[in-house]
Amino acid sequence: MDERAPGRLLATPSWLVGQTAVQSRRIIGAAFAAAEASGYHYRLLLSLAEFGPASQATLGRRTGIDRSDVVAALNELSTAGYVDREIDPDDRRRNIITLTAAGRRQLERLDRFVEAAQEELFAPLSAAERGQLTRLLARVVEHHAQAD
Amino acid sequence: MDERAPGRLLATPSWLVGQTAVQSRRIIGAAFAAAEASGYHYRLLLSLAEFGPASQATLGRRTGIDRSDVVAALNELSTAGYVDREIDPDDRRRNIITLTAAGRRQLERLDRFVEAAQEELFAPLSAAERGQLTRLLARVVEHHAQAD
DNA sequence: CGTATATCAGGTGCACTGAGATTT
DNA sequence: CAAATCTCAGTGGACCTGATATAC
Protein backbone atom coordinates (compact mmCIF):
# COMPACT_ATOMS: atom_id res chain seq x y z
CA MET A 1 0.00 0.00 0.00
CA ASP A 2 1.64 3.16 -1.19
CA GLU A 3 0.80 6.23 0.83
CA ARG A 4 3.23 8.74 -0.62
CA ALA A 5 1.82 12.10 -1.51
CA PRO A 6 2.07 13.07 -5.19
CA GLY A 7 5.45 14.69 -5.84
CA ARG A 8 3.89 17.65 -7.58
CA LEU A 9 1.85 18.44 -4.48
CA LEU A 10 4.99 18.35 -2.35
CA ALA A 11 6.50 20.91 -4.73
CA THR A 12 3.47 23.22 -4.70
CA PRO A 13 3.90 25.90 -2.04
CA SER A 14 0.22 26.76 -1.83
CA TRP A 15 -0.61 23.15 -0.98
CA LEU A 16 2.19 22.97 1.56
CA VAL A 17 0.89 26.12 3.20
CA GLY A 18 -2.59 24.64 3.34
CA GLN A 19 -1.44 21.37 4.87
CA THR A 20 0.66 23.18 7.44
CA ALA A 21 -2.35 25.29 8.31
CA VAL A 22 -4.36 22.10 8.85
CA GLN A 23 -1.76 20.78 11.29
CA SER A 24 -1.67 24.14 12.97
CA ARG A 25 -5.41 24.16 13.54
CA ARG A 26 -5.28 20.62 14.87
CA ILE A 27 -2.61 21.47 17.43
CA ILE A 28 -3.70 24.94 18.46
CA GLY A 29 -7.39 24.22 18.11
CA ALA A 30 -7.20 21.39 20.60
CA ALA A 31 -5.41 23.54 23.16
CA PHE A 32 -7.81 26.43 22.66
CA ALA A 33 -10.85 24.19 22.94
CA ALA A 34 -9.55 22.89 26.26
CA ALA A 35 -9.32 26.49 27.46
CA GLU A 36 -12.83 27.19 26.10
CA ALA A 37 -11.29 29.72 23.75
CA SER A 38 -10.82 30.09 20.00
CA GLY A 39 -8.41 31.62 17.55
CA TYR A 40 -10.69 34.62 17.27
CA HIS A 41 -10.54 35.13 21.04
CA TYR A 42 -6.76 35.02 21.01
CA ARG A 43 -6.43 37.49 18.17
CA LEU A 44 -8.84 39.94 19.76
CA LEU A 45 -7.24 39.79 23.20
CA LEU A 46 -3.81 40.23 21.65
CA SER A 47 -4.92 43.26 19.67
CA LEU A 48 -6.48 44.86 22.75
CA ALA A 49 -3.34 44.22 24.81
CA GLU A 50 -1.07 45.75 22.19
CA PHE A 51 -3.09 48.76 21.05
CA GLY A 52 -5.48 49.36 23.93
CA PRO A 53 -9.26 49.86 23.79
CA ALA A 54 -10.79 50.02 20.33
CA SER A 55 -14.08 49.89 18.47
CA GLN A 56 -15.31 46.61 17.02
CA ALA A 57 -14.75 47.77 13.45
CA THR A 58 -11.15 48.67 14.23
CA LEU A 59 -10.60 45.36 15.96
CA GLY A 60 -11.92 43.57 12.92
CA ARG A 61 -9.58 45.38 10.57
CA ARG A 62 -6.57 44.84 12.80
CA THR A 63 -7.12 41.16 13.32
CA GLY A 64 -8.53 40.30 9.92
CA ILE A 65 -11.71 38.99 11.53
CA ASP A 66 -15.00 39.65 9.79
CA ARG A 67 -17.21 42.28 11.43
CA SER A 68 -19.86 39.66 11.88
CA ASP A 69 -17.60 37.23 13.71
CA VAL A 70 -16.20 40.02 15.87
CA VAL A 71 -19.67 40.46 17.33
CA ALA A 72 -20.03 36.79 18.22
CA ALA A 73 -16.52 36.43 19.63
CA LEU A 74 -16.88 39.56 21.76
CA ASN A 75 -20.19 38.27 23.10
CA GLU A 76 -18.33 35.24 24.40
CA LEU A 77 -15.37 37.21 25.71
CA SER A 78 -17.75 39.61 27.41
CA THR A 79 -19.84 36.99 29.19
CA ALA A 80 -16.59 35.35 30.31
CA GLY A 81 -15.57 38.70 31.81
CA TYR A 82 -12.48 39.13 29.64
CA VAL A 83 -13.57 42.38 28.01
CA ASP A 84 -15.85 45.31 28.78
CA ARG A 85 -18.14 46.75 26.13
CA GLU A 86 -19.51 50.26 26.37
CA ILE A 87 -20.89 52.81 23.99
CA ASP A 88 -18.49 55.53 22.86
CA PRO A 89 -19.99 58.82 24.17
CA ASP A 90 -18.26 60.75 21.36
CA ASP A 91 -19.68 58.54 18.61
CA ARG A 92 -22.66 56.54 19.73
CA ARG A 93 -22.44 54.15 16.77
CA ARG A 94 -19.29 52.66 18.25
CA ASN A 95 -18.67 50.27 21.11
CA ILE A 96 -15.45 50.76 23.02
CA ILE A 97 -13.97 47.39 23.89
CA THR A 98 -11.63 47.25 26.88
CA LEU A 99 -9.47 44.42 28.15
CA THR A 100 -10.14 43.46 31.78
CA ALA A 101 -7.60 42.11 34.28
CA ALA A 102 -9.13 38.67 33.84
CA GLY A 103 -8.80 39.08 30.09
CA ARG A 104 -5.12 39.85 30.47
CA ARG A 105 -4.63 36.69 32.52
CA GLN A 106 -6.51 34.64 29.93
CA LEU A 107 -4.26 36.06 27.21
CA GLU A 108 -1.20 34.95 29.15
CA ARG A 109 -2.65 31.46 29.43
CA LEU A 110 -3.38 31.32 25.71
CA ASP A 111 0.09 32.69 24.97
CA ARG A 112 1.61 29.66 26.60
CA PHE A 113 -0.55 27.36 24.49
CA VAL A 114 0.44 29.17 21.33
CA GLU A 115 4.10 29.03 22.28
CA ALA A 116 3.91 25.28 22.89
CA ALA A 117 2.08 24.80 19.62
CA GLN A 118 4.84 26.52 17.62
CA GLU A 119 7.28 24.09 19.18
CA GLU A 120 5.21 21.09 18.17
CA LEU A 121 4.24 22.34 14.74
CA PHE A 122 7.72 23.40 13.64
CA ALA A 123 9.63 20.71 15.50
CA PRO A 124 11.75 19.69 12.48
CA LEU A 125 13.03 23.24 11.94
CA SER A 126 15.93 24.93 13.74
CA ALA A 127 15.52 28.34 15.31
CA ALA A 128 17.28 29.95 12.34
CA GLU A 129 15.00 28.14 9.90
CA ARG A 130 11.92 29.22 11.81
CA GLY A 131 13.16 32.77 11.52
CA GLN A 132 13.58 32.36 7.77
CA LEU A 133 10.10 30.93 7.44
CA THR A 134 8.60 33.70 9.53
CA ARG A 135 10.24 36.44 7.49
CA LEU A 136 9.23 34.92 4.17
CA LEU A 137 5.61 34.44 5.19
CA ALA A 138 5.39 37.86 6.81
CA ARG A 139 6.31 39.45 3.49
CA VAL A 140 3.62 37.45 1.72
CA VAL A 141 0.98 38.33 4.29
CA GLU A 142 1.86 42.02 4.33
CA HIS A 143 1.81 42.13 0.55
CA HIS A 144 -1.76 40.85 0.44
CA ALA A 145 -2.86 42.93 3.40
CA GLN A 146 -2.04 46.08 1.43
CA ALA A 147 -4.20 44.97 -1.48
CA ASP A 148 -7.70 45.58 -0.12
CA MET B 1 -7.91 54.67 12.11
CA ASP B 2 -5.09 52.29 12.79
CA GLU B 3 -5.32 49.01 10.92
CA ARG B 4 -1.94 47.46 11.70
CA ALA B 5 -1.96 43.85 12.77
CA PRO B 6 -0.63 43.16 16.26
CA GLY B 7 3.14 42.74 16.09
CA ARG B 8 3.05 39.49 18.00
CA LEU B 9 0.77 37.97 15.39
CA LEU B 10 3.17 39.00 12.63
CA ALA B 11 5.90 37.15 14.55
CA THR B 12 3.87 33.99 15.09
CA PRO B 13 4.57 31.50 12.30
CA SER B 14 1.38 29.50 12.85
CA TRP B 15 -0.70 32.63 12.32
CA LEU B 16 1.28 33.60 9.24
CA VAL B 17 0.74 30.14 7.81
CA GLY B 18 -2.98 30.43 8.45
CA GLN B 19 -3.26 33.84 6.83
CA THR B 20 -1.29 32.70 3.81
CA ALA B 21 -3.60 29.72 3.53
CA VAL B 22 -6.58 32.09 3.52
CA GLN B 23 -5.12 34.08 0.65
CA SER B 24 -4.32 30.86 -1.12
CA ARG B 25 -7.90 29.63 -0.89
CA ARG B 26 -9.19 32.99 -2.10
CA ILE B 27 -7.00 32.93 -5.18
CA ILE B 28 -7.14 29.25 -6.09
CA GLY B 29 -10.69 28.76 -4.88
CA ALA B 30 -11.98 31.39 -7.26
CA ALA B 31 -10.22 29.81 -10.22
CA PHE B 32 -11.38 26.32 -9.27
CA ALA B 33 -14.96 27.46 -8.78
CA ALA B 34 -14.94 28.98 -12.27
CA ALA B 35 -13.81 25.60 -13.60
CA GLU B 36 -16.50 23.84 -11.52
CA ALA B 37 -13.74 22.07 -9.64
CA SER B 38 -12.38 22.02 -6.10
CA GLY B 39 -9.15 21.45 -4.27
CA TYR B 40 -10.21 17.86 -3.66
CA HIS B 41 -10.72 17.32 -7.38
CA TYR B 42 -7.27 18.63 -8.18
CA ARG B 43 -5.55 16.51 -5.57
CA LEU B 44 -7.32 13.35 -6.69
CA LEU B 45 -6.64 13.90 -10.39
CA LEU B 46 -3.00 14.65 -9.63
CA SER B 47 -2.62 11.50 -7.59
CA LEU B 48 -4.20 9.37 -10.31
CA ALA B 49 -1.97 10.92 -12.97
CA GLU B 50 1.17 10.29 -10.97
CA PHE B 51 0.54 6.82 -9.53
CA GLY B 52 -2.08 5.37 -11.87
CA PRO B 53 -5.37 3.68 -10.93
CA ALA B 54 -5.97 3.16 -7.21
CA SER B 55 -8.62 2.29 -4.67
CA GLN B 56 -10.50 5.04 -2.88
CA ALA B 57 -8.83 4.25 0.44
CA THR B 58 -5.39 4.55 -1.13
CA LEU B 59 -6.34 7.80 -2.82
CA GLY B 60 -7.48 9.16 0.51
CA ARG B 61 -4.23 8.28 2.21
CA ARG B 62 -2.12 9.71 -0.58
CA THR B 63 -3.93 12.99 -0.83
CA GLY B 64 -4.78 13.46 2.84
CA ILE B 65 -8.48 13.59 2.00
CA ASP B 66 -10.91 11.92 4.38
CA ARG B 67 -12.47 8.65 3.12
CA SER B 68 -15.86 10.31 3.36
CA ASP B 69 -14.91 13.28 1.21
CA VAL B 70 -13.19 11.02 -1.31
CA VAL B 71 -16.57 9.42 -2.00
CA ALA B 72 -18.29 12.74 -2.64
CA ALA B 73 -15.49 14.18 -4.77
CA LEU B 74 -15.28 11.02 -6.89
CA ASN B 75 -19.02 11.13 -7.42
CA GLU B 76 -18.57 14.56 -8.95
CA LEU B 77 -15.50 13.60 -10.97
CA SER B 78 -17.29 10.50 -12.21
CA THR B 79 -20.46 12.25 -13.39
CA ALA B 80 -18.23 14.81 -15.13
CA GLY B 81 -16.54 11.93 -16.92
CA TYR B 82 -13.09 12.60 -15.50
CA VAL B 83 -12.68 9.22 -13.80
CA ASP B 84 -13.98 5.68 -14.17
CA ARG B 85 -15.07 3.67 -11.16
CA GLU B 86 -15.23 -0.11 -11.25
CA ILE B 87 -15.19 -2.87 -8.71
CA ASP B 88 -11.85 -4.61 -8.20
CA PRO B 89 -12.45 -8.25 -9.26
CA ASP B 90 -9.64 -9.39 -6.95
CA ASP B 91 -11.08 -7.67 -3.87
CA ARG B 92 -14.70 -6.78 -4.24
CA ARG B 93 -14.63 -4.34 -1.33
CA ARG B 94 -12.52 -1.99 -3.42
CA ASN B 95 -13.32 0.36 -6.27
CA ILE B 96 -10.60 0.87 -8.83
CA ILE B 97 -10.53 4.50 -9.91
CA THR B 98 -9.06 5.28 -13.31
CA LEU B 99 -8.29 8.61 -14.92
CA THR B 100 -9.99 9.17 -18.28
CA ALA B 101 -8.64 11.18 -21.20
CA ALA B 102 -11.06 13.96 -20.31
CA GLY B 103 -9.79 13.82 -16.72
CA ARG B 104 -6.24 14.25 -17.95
CA ARG B 105 -7.26 17.31 -19.93
CA GLN B 106 -9.10 18.74 -16.93
CA LEU B 107 -5.98 18.23 -14.82
CA GLU B 108 -3.94 20.19 -17.34
CA ARG B 109 -6.46 23.02 -17.17
CA LEU B 110 -6.37 23.04 -13.39
CA ASP B 111 -2.57 22.89 -13.45
CA ARG B 112 -2.48 26.17 -15.29
CA PHE B 113 -4.74 27.76 -12.67
CA VAL B 114 -2.56 26.46 -9.86
CA GLU B 115 0.55 27.72 -11.60
CA ALA B 116 -0.94 31.19 -12.03
CA ALA B 117 -2.07 31.19 -8.42
CA GLN B 118 1.46 30.50 -7.14
CA GLU B 119 2.61 33.52 -9.09
CA GLU B 120 -0.04 35.76 -7.57
CA LEU B 121 0.19 34.38 -4.05
CA PHE B 122 3.97 34.52 -3.75
CA ALA B 123 4.49 37.61 -5.89
CA PRO B 124 6.76 39.36 -3.35
CA LEU B 125 9.19 36.41 -3.22
CA SER B 126 12.02 35.67 -5.65
CA ALA B 127 12.38 32.23 -7.21
CA ALA B 128 15.15 31.38 -4.75
CA GLU B 129 12.99 32.47 -1.81
CA ARG B 130 10.08 30.40 -3.06
CA GLY B 131 12.41 27.44 -3.16
CA GLN B 132 13.48 28.10 0.43
CA LEU B 133 9.88 28.35 1.54
CA THR B 134 8.92 25.17 -0.28
CA ARG B 135 11.74 23.17 1.26
CA LEU B 136 11.03 24.41 4.78
CA LEU B 137 7.31 23.69 4.56
CA ALA B 138 7.84 20.31 2.90
CA ARG B 139 9.91 19.22 5.90
CA VAL B 140 7.16 20.32 8.28
CA VAL B 141 4.44 18.56 6.28
CA GLU B 142 6.41 15.33 5.95
CA HIS B 143 7.21 15.34 9.64
CA HIS B 144 3.53 15.43 10.56
CA ALA B 145 2.55 12.99 7.81
CA GLN B 146 4.73 10.35 9.42
CA ALA B 147 2.99 10.78 12.76
CA ASP B 148 -0.31 9.02 12.18
C1' DC C 1 -28.09 62.52 1.66
C1' DG C 2 -24.18 58.97 1.77
C1' DT C 3 -21.10 56.60 4.99
C1' DA C 4 -19.83 53.94 9.04
C1' DT C 5 -21.03 51.02 12.79
C1' DA C 6 -23.08 47.11 15.16
C1' DT C 7 -26.04 43.19 14.78
C1' DC C 8 -28.41 39.12 12.94
C1' DA C 9 -29.41 35.34 9.76
C1' DG C 10 -27.62 32.50 6.76
C1' DG C 11 -24.20 30.07 3.27
C1' DT C 12 -19.97 27.77 1.87
C1' DG C 13 -15.61 24.98 1.54
C1' DC C 14 -13.07 21.98 4.15
C1' DA C 15 -11.86 18.72 7.70
C1' DC C 16 -13.81 15.36 10.48
C1' DT C 17 -16.89 11.80 13.21
C1' DG C 18 -20.03 7.96 13.68
C1' DA C 19 -22.55 4.40 11.96
C1' DG C 20 -23.95 0.84 8.70
C1' DA C 21 -23.31 -2.64 4.95
C1' DT C 22 -20.24 -5.61 2.47
C1' DT C 23 -16.16 -8.32 1.70
C1' DT C 24 -11.85 -10.40 2.98
C1' DC D 1 -14.22 -13.71 14.38
C1' DA D 2 -11.50 -9.20 13.30
C1' DA D 3 -10.16 -5.87 9.87
C1' DA D 4 -10.64 -3.21 5.68
C1' DT D 5 -13.47 -0.77 2.29
C1' DC D 6 -17.19 2.07 0.69
C1' DT D 7 -21.12 4.92 1.69
C1' DC D 8 -24.15 8.17 4.01
C1' DA D 9 -25.62 11.52 7.50
C1' DG D 10 -24.28 14.94 10.21
C1' DT D 11 -20.96 18.20 13.09
C1' DG D 12 -17.85 22.13 13.65
C1' DG D 13 -14.70 25.96 13.00
C1' DA D 14 -13.32 29.60 10.02
C1' DC D 15 -14.46 32.68 6.45
C1' DC D 16 -17.80 35.34 4.05
C1' DT D 17 -22.42 37.70 2.27
C1' DG D 18 -26.61 40.21 2.64
C1' DA D 19 -29.91 42.79 5.12
C1' DT D 20 -31.38 45.80 8.92
C1' DA D 21 -31.22 49.59 12.36
C1' DT D 22 -28.87 53.31 14.15
C1' DA D 23 -25.81 57.24 14.35
C1' DC D 24 -22.73 60.40 12.10
Could you characterize what this model shows?
Chains A, B: InterPro entries: HTH_MarR-typ, MarR/SlyA-like, WH-like_DNA-bd_sf, WH_DNA-bd_sf. Chains A, B: It comes from Kribbella deserti. Chains A, B: This is MarR family winged helix-turn-helix transcriptional regulator. The structure is a homodimer of 148-residue chains. With 148 residues, chain A is mainly alpha-helical. Chain A has one domain: Winged helix-like DNA-binding domain superfamily/Winged helix DNA-binding domain (Arc Repressor Mutant, subunit A, Orthogonal Bundle). The first copy, chain A, contains seven helices and two strands. Chain A has a two-stranded antiparallel sheet. In chain A, strand 1 and strand 2 form a beta hairpin. In chain A, helix 2 crosses helix 6 and helix 3 crosses helix 6. The termini of chain A are far apart. In chain A, 39% of the residues are buried. The mean pLDDT of chain A is 95. Chain B binds a DNA duplex (24 and 24 nucleotides) through helix 2 and helix 5.
Key descriptive features of the protein:
7 helices, homodimer, about 70% helix, mainly alpha, Arc Repressor Mutant, subunit A, about 150 residues, DNA-binding, two-stranded antiparallel sheet
